[in-house]
Design brief:
Helix content is 32%, strand content 19%. The chain is built from 14 helices and 21 strands. The protein is globular, with a radius of gyration of 25 Å. The N and C termini lie far apart (53 Å).
Length: 516
């Protein structure tokens, strides 16, 4: 009798152990398809709006939840199909044939009508930062509502037709920016034009849950053209490095996240050093397409002499070049655009700029100056160095770019802000227009719009690049900005996740973080 009872109990233990093992295996299988992302933002999802992209985390969230008409290839930046399965110029018209098999997670079909609605919505709101679409498609006309006609946009069957009047070289690549995301008509409030439904989206991922404080769960839409079994089936955005949240590498070390994006709040060297110490990580690095800069606001340009701006700039250059002198990935730079890229200075202008800085002294007195730090890594390490170099300077940290903020009074506006924008090697109208709109080139809003409008009218590429290089020299010699150092964008993944992101863009389409 005792042997029988022992046998039964033992059998029961084995069965329970088997069930527990199976449950653990299922749990591991479920969680292994989830990519937990350290995300340097803590906004609720309704704050994300394609026409108001001011900082990189906004772009990253939106490029994963919405899709544009076309994408750009990750190796050369060539236009490739996205919401539009094909595209071509037909005379002076640009035709986008929309996919017939694109549905939201709830089965709502996305058509050319949704594409037309999305682009007209952008024209009505008229606030996007990457590319001046209005001047190419609806120049001289302000749309007051979606129902108003725009002669430059038409739908023929399931084809969206853009009519700029002639073949415009920028138009195709411009609509690859996520500002031009295709948003299903039913996901937008018809009166306010605000996005109200982040579940039925055009992107590979949709919002499954949101706690309102940055913890967002995204789930995959298997009906999407980017879908593959190797992509993350779920994504969890975990706030990091902001408002008291632990930084990304602490969360990674604690096993709470699996991926650190290229637009993390920590500077690249921290991530590189961490990856060298952790054997279960994979590091991704772009080319040196990030330029750390000191930008003078219009307030400073109007009240500080050219000589004073050059002197302060030379002092800041020394601080950051000394700080990053022996840091992997960083290089001193005197140019905003990469020297050998499309916007690089001519040899003559490089020499003139070098001579200008040789003949100027470094400033030592920062009294009366207000410097703001915008998402510029671990500021606590170099704030004392700036304060030592420019005695009396006021330094604050801010997550807002001054050009995008409405200040109550002028005294709140900083004179200088430190930032690290994406520049790119190739002529990129999205990045150029963003720099203009963000005040990086020292232009006021009306001046920026006028320059962009004229620039986009130039059909000959060599003539455009000449104009771009002239602008580049102008803003460096004035100066409106001071380049400090250049660096790559880096990302980090926990194995067996594999990173297949681009080396020429800072974007994070998370379907390019895969498991084989």
């Amino acid at each position: 009798m005792k042997k029988k009872i022992i046998f039964v109990v033992t059998g029961l233990v084995l069965v329970l152990a088997g069930i527990m093992s199976l449950n653990q295996e299922n749990q591991m299988k479920t969680t292994s398809d989830t990519l937990r992302v350290a995300f340097p933002y803590n906004r609720k999802v309704t704050d994300y709006e394609p026409t108001q992209i001011h900082l990189a985390p906004e772009y990253i969230f939106l490029e994963n939840t919405f899709s544009p008409l076309i994408d750009l290839s990750k190796d050369k930046g060539d236009p490739i199909s996205a919401v539009a399965k094909s595209f071509q110029w037909v005379g002076d018209e640009l035709h986008f044939e929309i996919r017939d098999d694109l549905f939201t997670i709830d089965g709502i079909k996305i058509t050319a009508k949704d594409a037309e609605f999305s682009l007209k919505r952008l024209l009505v709101l008229s606030e996007n930062t990457h590319g001046n679409f209005k001047d190419l498609i609806c120049s001289g006309k302000k749309l007051e509502s979606i129902d108003e006609p725009c002669s430059g946009i038409e739908v023929r069957g399931n084809t969206l037709v853009l009519k700029p009047g002639e073949q415009k070289p920028f138009l195709l690549k411009m609509v690859a920016a996520i500002d031009f995301a295709i948003i299903p008509i039913g996901s937008v409030d018809k009166n306010t034009l605000k996005i109200t439904d982040y579940r039925n989206t055009s992107g590979l991922y949709y919002v499954e849950s949101d706690d309102g404080h940055g913890n967002v769960a995204l789930a995959v839409n298997s009906k999407h053209f980017h879908y593959d079994k190797s992509v993350p089936q779920k994504i969890e955005l975990v706030p990091s490095g902001i408002d008291g949240a632990a930084n990304s590498l602490s969360l990674f070390q604690e096993g709470k996240v699996d991926f650190v994006t290229t637009i993390d709040k920590l500077n690249p060297e921290k991530v590189i050093q961490f990856s060298e110490q952790e054997s279960d990580t994979e590091l991704h690095s772009t080319m040196n397409i990030r330029t750390f800069v000191a930008v003078y606001t219009p307030k400073a340009i109007s009240r500080l002499s050219q000589e004073k701006r050059l002197m302060v700039g030379k002092s800041l250059k020394k601080v950051f070049r000394d700080y990053y002198k022996n840091t992997s990935g960083y290089e001193p730079t005197d140019q905003f655009f990469p020297p050998y890229g499309d916007g690089g200075l001519t040899k003559e202008n490089r020499t003139k700029l070098e001579d200008t800085f040789k003949n100027i002294e470094e400033a030592t007195d920062g009294t009366g100056l207000h410097l703001s730090i915008v998402r510029f890594g671990n500021a606590s390490e170099y704030i004392p160095l700036i304060e030592k170099a420019l005695r009396g300077i006021k330094i604050t940290e801010d997550n807002n770019i001054p050009a995008f903020i409405q200040y109550k009074n002028e005294s709140e506006i900083p004179d200088i802000y430190l930032g690290g924008p994406d520049t790119g090697f190739m002529e990129d109208i999205g990045l150029i227009s963003y720099s203009m709109n963000a005040g990086i080139f020292g232009y006021k809003k009306s001046e920026a719009q006028a320059w962009l409008k004229d620039y986009m009218q130039i059909l000959d590429k060599e003539e455009r690049l000449k104009r771009l290089r002239e602008l580049h020299y102008q803003v460096l010699s004035s100066p409106a900005l001071i380049p400090l150092v250049s660096a790559p964008y880096v990302a980090l993944a926990r194995k067996p996740w594999k990173i297949e992101l681009s080396q020429i863009y800072a974007n994070n389409p998370l379907w390019l973080v895969k498991k084989n």
